[in-house]
Design brief:
Layout: E1 2-10, E2 13-20, H1 23-38, E3 54-60, H2 64-67, H3 71-78, H4 96-115, E4 129-137, E5 142-151, H5 168-177, H6 179-186
Antiparallel strand pairs: 1-2, 1-3, 4-5
Helix pairs in contact: 3-4, 4-6
Amino acid sequence: MRKFQLTKVFGGESEPIGTFDTKPQAANEMEEIIDSNNDDLDEDDEDYLTPFDFTLKEVEVMDVNKEIPDYEAAKRFIGLVPIVKTTISAINPKHQKALIALNTLFTIAEVWNKADNFVPDFSNRNQWKWFPWFRYSDDAAGFVCASTHYTASGANANIGSRLCFKSEERATQFGKQFIDLWNDYLLFR
């Protein structure tokens, strides 16, 4: 699928901003960054941004939720070598299912984030990170993905930092698509 990748190139450094479905979306994001940055600056200030400080290129982007729909596809994508099965025997049997589900979620999230060019940086308070948010439903006899939650500076103890995403849409998609794995991880059965 064709998308538009916006990058800030300023002061000799390149910073990816994001990938957008349309040119106008990328242009709007660029304008917001410029306006926010230049709010208290004069045109002569060395940190003053202009559209010339950005590049926009058309790129082919993988539809990651379709290309990487499960753990096996994620393992193939990153070249994960199978672990010797004897190491699993050292895990408390009561928690094996939960730990295997968590590992599976970590692996798929890693691949999805790689495809989205997203590297969570918890030292960067300006980078937003989105997490699936769940509630327990008696009707579903398990957790359902109720919404998403974001943070720019910290992580709660009940949210895994390896399971965050660059957008609300991606976090919701991940929470819903892999709800069975989340239930294996979150529920003690």
